[in-house]
Amino acid sequence: MEEGLISVDKWTTVSQVYFLTHLHSDHTQGLTPKWSKGPLYCSPITARLFPVRFPGFDMLLVRVLEAGKPQTLTLVSRSSHSKVLVEVTAIDARHCPGALMYLFRGQFGSVLYTGDFRWEIGDMKAVEGKNILLNALGDKKLDLLYMDNTYCNPSFSFPPRKVAAQQVVDIMTSHPHHDFVIGVDNLGKEDLLLHISQMLNTKIWVWPERLRVMHLLGFEDAFTTKTCLTRVRAVPRYSLTFETIESLNTVRPTIAILPTGLPWGKKFLDQKSLSYSCVSLCKEGSDIFAETGHSSEIFKSPRKLHQHMFAVSYSEHSCFKEIEEFLKYVNPSRISGIVSSAFCCINPRHYLDHLCKDESDNLCCKDSRGKLGLSVAWKAESVLECDKAFGIDKQINISGLLKGCKLRADSPKVLGVQRSMISKIRRRVRGVKIDHNDNFY
Question: How many structural domains are present in the chain?
Fold first, then answer.
């Protein structure tokens, strides 16, 4: 597709139309209430939530796309000034309320951008999405897949969300005299909270802004802002700290529950906050894998991180097996990961290249900006820690690779090494880094 026609989840460049997959903050960076570059396409639910997320946003710019209903856009080529017809089909991504995938078709071929998604094997809504996708493709092949590669590693194996939700309920029923706090984001995991409310026959406390979101989603009956009505509270994830839980237990017995696919470990939770970095999580993942000896099993059952805290593998991103099944289903010619900031930039090509038709010309992990994109605090040895933690079993001699490198005095260095050198090391291990916010053309 020609440059400058379409952008997906990218708000800093100039395009003719823009598409938003969902309202999580890592997909709206650069989008503000004053944004006015052009029409913005999204789902009906996302459009309904827009005034909450962006007060004062010009809603005349918002275009609603219904899942499964193709729409043709007439754009103009910047080079030839001729018309460019693009057919776009929105598909339910099963990630959070309003999350969509987008299938684009035109003279350039067919391109699918998943955004964040979780298509669980056997989930009826995921099956419906697959049927919509196949019907939209017709007898045409899928040329390029931009895919959510957050958990694109065999180490990650999650139970279905319904199973994980019941695991949370089981923890609660086994502690009948405790209060509970559940860490959630501003959007997402509503099905988990509704399941808890239904099974325990109780309302769930949420903070006022979250209650407004619940009202807009039509779930107001199960939630409240009155703490006296319930012993279950959904709180902002960043507010769950060791210090907070210890303080709560001085007042009443309280258990914290983290519904997440992230590999939290005991050592990491000794920190003041549950905010995280790629390197920290990779080190913790390595420790957990070493302790268990069977990495894929640790994510299937609740893990007791502390006497007052459990982690439950409730993930809204597909795990490796689900990604593998998804690729077999859509059978793309090429794949490109869209996530670079999580779990040391897991490269989908490392494990899944054999599922692509055109392995010789795979665009996966193309680094269009030629830079590492991580903070200066990244250490060279952390590259090896990440690989070890997430199953990339290759040995490299880092001192040998660094020997004889030319360093520029004005370049940011990490342990005396240019970022570009670390990029070269990473390429030797598993390919070039993906840029999370690359423009979509």
Answer: 3
